[in-house]
Structure prediction request, 299 residues.
Amino acid sequence: MPSEMISGPDLGGGYLHQLTRDADGARTTFTYHAQIGGDDAGGPPLGPLDAFGFVHPPTPCQFGGPRCWHRRFLLAVADTPRVRAAYNRTRFVMETMLKQRYAGAPVGVAGALKELLARLPPVVDGGPPPWFVGGSAGAWLLGADLAPRDLDLGTDRAGVDRIAAAVAEFLIEPVGPTDGPGGAIVHGARAFVGTFQEGARVEWSVPLEPVHGPLAAEWSGVPARVRTITVAWGGGRVAASRPEYALVRAAARGATDRFPPLRALLRRLGPDPELLRELLEGPDVPAALRETVRSQTGP
Prediction:
């Protein structure tokens, strides 16, 4: 079956959007396409789409041309209705997501987290949490003076599907196999929790192949491997990964502007020396930065 366009061209956030599917037996690759739409699309857009997981194909796209961005999902033909629903929400919230990313619009992290707290399984003592907040949002939840751009959730394989079902009307990407960071294939989904004009992106996934290294453990799909802190928040309890993960990841990315708020948080909570040692012994942080990272947790 050749490529079939099942929606589009549609407008959203300065881009022209199309949704296509390529069937191969029982398996189907659904693709979101987005290209700069010009004046007809209310453009130019505020910025590129790589921040939302979109990539440029290596060759000109059949539907979007040489300046096309895309997201791919490997699902069944029977999943077409839910893929179409998520695609439509994506283009409806695209302008808001772009404004949050590139124009300083506020990100409704607190409102989105309250919605999640009301819908997801509760965090209880006595075992690994069924889900937790990680990354910079986790540090923010623990009290760091940071402004998260989105909410990254950690969970296990079953939890990915459970979260997707709980926020089904907010999905901007269908749950299933898709492209993850660094070209890896993950089982995950994304949502924009809120209204078309206000809310926050929420992302969660698990790798489909084993991951290695202590820093990768935060998103390994095995919550028991992650060191978390549970706090009272929004009338419930929420687990967050320890800020050492965010600190070491900031160093690995060269985001030293995040050191001061993370340093202040670690000194308030008290560092976890064993976790920090494990993270710094991994391959993610160049040797030259290790002492810099250690200095952020000193007296």
